[in-house]
Amino acid sequence: MQAVALYPEGPDLRVVEKPKPVPADDEVLVRTLHVGIDGSDRRIVAGDIGGDPPDGDDHLVVGHEAVGVVEDPTGSSFERGDVVTPMVRRPKDPPSRFAENEELDMAPPGTFHECGITGAHGFMAEYFTVEPEYLVSVPDDRADYGFFVEPASIAEKALDQAFTARSGFDWRPESAFVLGNGNLGLLALARFSTGDEFDRTYCLGRRDRPDPTIEFVESVGGTYVDSRETELSEFPAVYEPADFVFETTGYPQHSIEAVSALGPNGIVTLQGIPGDSTFEVEGGGFHSDLVVNNKGVLGVVNSRRPHFEAAVEWLQAVPTSLLDGLVSGVYAVDGVEDALSDTDETIKTVVSFEK
Amino acid sequence: MQAVALYPEGPDLRVVEKPKPVPADDEVLVRTLHVGIDGSDRRIVAGDIGGDPPDGDDHLVVGHEAVGVVEDPTGSSFERGDVVTPMVRRPKDPPSRFAENEELDMAPPGTFHECGITGAHGFMAEYFTVEPEYLVSVPDDRADYGFFVEPASIAEKALDQAFTARSGFDWRPESAFVLGNGNLGLLALARFSTGDEFDRTYCLGRRDRPDPTIEFVESVGGTYVDSRETELSEFPAVYEPADFVFETTGYPQHSIEAVSALGPNGIVTLQGIPGDSTFEVEGGGFHSDLVVNNKGVLGVVNSRRPHFEAAVEWLQAVPTSLLDGLVSGVYAVDGVEDALSDTDETIKTVVSFEK
Prior knowledge:
The structure is a homodimer. Chain A is of the alpha/beta class. Chain A has helices at about 40-45, 95-100, 150-165, 185-195, 210-220, 235-240, 255, 285-290, 305-315, 320-325, 335-340, and strands at about 1-5, 10-15, 30-35, 60, 65-70, 85, 90, 110-115, 120, 125-130, 135, 175-180, 200-205, 225, 240-245, 260-270, 280, 295-300, 325-330, 350. The first copy, chain A, has two domains: about 1-135 and about 325-350, Quinone Oxidoreductase, Chain A, domain 1 (Alpha-Beta Complex); about 150-300, NAD(P)-binding Rossmann-like Domain (Rossmann fold), CATH 3.40.50.720. In chain A, about 25% of the residues lie in helices and about 30% in strands. In chain A, helix 11 (about 335-340) links the parallel strand 19 (about 325-330) and strand 20. The relative contact order of chain A is 0.15. Strand 17 (about 280) of chain A pairs antiparallel with strand 17 of chain B. Chains A, B: It is an enzyme of class 1 (oxidoreductase). Chains A, B: Belongs to the zinc-containing alcohol dehydrogenase family. Glucose 1-dehydrogenase subfamily.
C-alpha cells in the first residue's frame, strides 16, 4: 500500500510502498478515506517538532486527522463499513492512570506517543490498524468530512475547559474571539459561531480583502478583526470585551496580550506551541488584570473521547456547505507536497485516498 | 465611639470620634471585637490603592477583616451576642445579577464598593451596622480569631477555583506551593498544610534564619524555599513539580514564572495586585509550557459566602495555637500606627477593641 513517510534525516518526506498491515487480535483494520493537514504536520515535516519514528523504524508515517472505513473489525463491536476516526495519543508502557481513565489528553508529556506526530505511525496510508478503544464513530453522511473531527475536538476541549473552569458561578458568556485565521482558527470560529454558547464571534487576522479567510469569517456570521489596525488591548474598546478567547496563532505575545482582550471573568485558552522567545511585557498590568477581573488562562492540548463525540455531533449539525468552505484543496497521495504547501489561499488541505 | 479614619488628602490616618451608628430597619448593629490588618490596608493608608470615602463623606473608616458581636439584631435572624464576621463587597445601585446571585466576588469592577477599601466604610470602629445578608456566623470559641475568616476565605476561593477548573478529569494534586511569606501567604500555607487537598506544602520567602515566618512554615509541616537560592523555574527539579501554586507576593514576574514551578495539569492562582511594571520574559516557553502541560493561571479576588463558611469551618478544625502563631501583635485603637507598621517580625497584626 502507499504511505507518506517522514525520514527524519533530512528531513525527507516520501511516498513509499509498505505492506498492508495485518490487524492483531485486538486491532481493527481501517481503510483510509481522507487525511487532513494542519500546521503541526507542516512543522513535523519541516523537522521543527516531533517526527520521531516508532522504536525500530527509520520513518514515521505522518497524518493525525483521518477518517476511514472499517475493513476488518476483528473481534470489536465495529462492523465492516463503519466510518470511523482515530484518536491521536497512545500510552507508553506501563500505562498511566490517564490511559486507564481514557484521559490521555491530560497525561504528562513523555508518557504517550502521538500517532503521526511522534513515536507512533500516523494515518496517511491506504490502511492502518488501531485498537478499537481509539476509534470514534462518524455518521456515513459525514464520511467525506471526518478529518475535521480531530481538530474540531480541540475546540470542544477548549470549550469544555473554559466552561468547567467557570462552572462555580453564573457565567454568561456572550462573545468569543478566535486569534488566528489558519485552519484551526477558522474551524473553531465556525464551531463557536454555530453553537449555542456565544451570541457574537470575532476572528483575528492580518490580511487584506479580498481574502478567502475573511470571506469565511463573514460567511459564518463572525467579525473580522485586523491585527494591524486593532491591538488586542484595544479590542474591548473597539469591539467589546471578549468572554472567551481561543488562541491558535502560536504567537507567544498572545499568551499575555490576549488577557487584555477579555472582559471580567473571561477565559483565554491557548492552543499554539511556540518555540523559545524573549520579549518585553507590561507584566504588572497582566497580573493585576487577571486578579481584579477574575480572568483565567488555560493551556489546552489534545482531546479525549467526549470531545471527539461532541465534534462529531457538531459536524452533523452544520450544513456540509460550511465545511466545504474550509477545504481549500484535496490532493491525491502523490500530491502530498502540494497539500503541505501553505499560501494565502490555503485553509484546510486534505490528502484523499479516494482520488 | 472611636473609629480609625483615612482622610485621603495627605493621606492622613486619624483616630476620630464618631456617633455610634443607629441601625436601619434592615441592618444589624455589631460591636467590634478585633480587626485584622493586611497588606492592602497598608497600601490604602499609604494612598497607593483605594481609599475613596463613601459619597458625601470626607473620610473612609478602614478595616475589612473584622469580627464582632451582634449588639442589636433588629429584625434579622441573628441574636444579640452572636459572633459574626462581615463580608467586604456591597453592590452599587442598581444591583447587578452578581449581587442578586450572592456572587459579588465575581462582579465587574465598578459595580460594587468594598468596605474599608474603597467607597464604603470599613469596620475599624467600636460599632458598625450591616445588612444581615453580609454577615457570616463565627463560633463563640473562635471569637478572638474571627478576623482570620476574611483572608482565609481568599485561600478557600482559590482552592474552589482551582479544583473547579480541574473537575473535568481525575486530578490528583499532591503538592501546594505558596509564593510569599506575608500574612496571607502564611495563613494560606497553614490552610493547605492542614487540609485534605495536599500531601506536601512549600512556602517561598527571602529571609535568613532565624526568622519567625520560616519557623511558622516549618511548624505547620511546610518546606521553606528561599527565592535567593531557588528560582521558580528550578523548583520542580530541586523540590518537586507543584500541582497548585498560590501567589501572594504581588511581584508581577511571578504571574509568568509561577507556571514554570507547576507540574502537568497544575494551576496557579494569582492574588496579588501589582502596579504597572514592564520587564522581559521568556514568553515562548511560558506559552508552550501552558499548552503542552495543560496548565492554567487563574486570577482570584474577593470571596463569597461559601468561601467564608469554609474558612470558618477550617478555623474551627485547627488548634488555636496554630492561629496564635500567625499573630505578631495585638494593638489598642490608639496603637493603630504601630499595627500598620511592617517589619521582619510582622506577620498578622490586629487592632482590638477589647484592649
